[in-house]
Amino acid sequence: MAPFPASALLERIGMRLPIIQAPMAGVSSPAMAAAVSQHGGLGSLGVGAMTAAQAREAVHQCRALSPGPLNVNLFVHRPAQANALKEAAWLARLRSEFERANAQPPQHLREIYRSFLADDDMLAMLVEEKPKVVSFHFGVPRPDQVAALHAAGSVLLASATNVEEAKALETAGVDAIVAQGYEAGGHRGVFDPDGEDSRMGTFALTRVLVRTLGIPVIAAGGIMDGAGIAAALKLGAVAAQLGTAFVPTDESLADQGFRALLFSDAAHHTVMTRVISGRPARSLANDFTRWGAQVPDDAIPDYPVTYDAGKALHAAGKAAGLRGYGAHWAGQGAPLARALSTAALMQTLESELEASRLG
């Protein structure tokens, strides 16, 4: 059988298969990323929650396991605006949930993640380590960051949820767009979390961007198997990015509570919520999302300040045996999840994609 049709982008990256493992911060691991790349795809590390030193160590761990291409993903959100009154009110609102876990909310909240826009240490690390791919979520990197990473030889990808975001990224000089549909798990890549969201689905967005842009498009959101990948390719995408499909793999950092929830009825009821982190994100239905269903958006502090409270509540809940307060990010394809090793999942996806070609 002939090899899968290649694009110039995939050849440049060194991918044999049009499969990208989503860079899920807190879930993806060096072992997961290495296994994906080892089997012909593009493995990814989400380092937005790491320091430059921690990210460098994760890159080294991945390279020790596989010489294949690696994608390092950064958050380029606008830095949080401190609001002591709103943050105090948020902690007061959460008090009853902490008390369920026999705990008290923290005294104050912190901006726990540093945006790549203000992290020159991370930029210096990437320029030195030269990962094959660097990708961005939540916005547009600075012009000097784009120039430095291109000079280092990295291919640049970035997420867009609509045409305007995609055009801004194309103008900024990124090499390909990740078309993130509304059904995707995890954080929406919207540049402005308080603006209007067009909520375009993966396939509609992918097709529109393929027809609109002059750079390649990668489809992301709700894709869980080879048939979904094949459908994205038929719409003109050069590859598909899968996240939820990799959450239950052996190499995933997802805890047992997350895994159990993924294989429960909750998989059929994913919801978009801001209360966990401060930004819209698709999660499995859990105690936190149900609590947050009636909370107005304007009561929620900025990302990632809100996430400081969310992580504290999750830790308190786990200590008390309550598993319903985690960031259980998952897309609408969650009912199709399979518990396999990453290598076995990659082999299965390749077989399914081949079968779709034959069909």
Give the key terms.
alpha/beta, 39% helix, single chain, 2 domains, 13 helices, 8-stranded parallel β-sheet, 359 residues, TIM Barrel, globular, 3-stranded antiparallel β-sheet
User: Considering the protein shown, what is the CATH homologous superfamily of the largest domain?
Assistant: Aldolase class I
User: What integer is the average pLDDT?
Assistant: 96
Amount of helix: 25-40%
Sequence of strands across the biggest β-sheet: 1-9-8-6-5-4-3-2
Uncertain parts: none
Q: What is the overall silhouette?
A: globular
Number of strands: 11
Number of domains: 2
How much β-strand is present in the residues? 5-15%
CATH fold title of the largest domain: TIM Barrel
Structure commentary:
This protein has 359 residues and is α/β, with parallel strands linked by helices. The chain has two domains: 8-79 and 115-253 and 337-358, Alpha-Beta Barrel (TIM Barrel), CATH 3.20.20.70; 80-113 and 271-329, no CATH class. Helix content is 39%, strand content 13%. The chain contains 13 helices and eleven strands. It has helices at 8-13, 30-38, 52-65, 84-100, 120-129, 143-151, 163-172, 202-212, 226-234, 256-262, 287-292, 305-319, 342-358, and strands at residues 19-21, 43-46, 70-75, 133-137, 155-160, 176-180, 186-187, 217-220, 239-242, 271-273, 281-283. Strands 1-9-8-6-5-4-3-2 form an eight-stranded parallel beta sheet. It has a three-stranded antiparallel beta sheet with strand order 7-11-10, with no helix packed on it. Strand 4, helix 6 and strand 5 form a beta-alpha-beta unit. Helix 2 crosses helix 3, helix 3 runs parallel beside helix 5 (120-129) and helix 4 (84-100) packs parallel to helix 12. It is globular and about 55 Å long. The two termini are 13 Å apart.
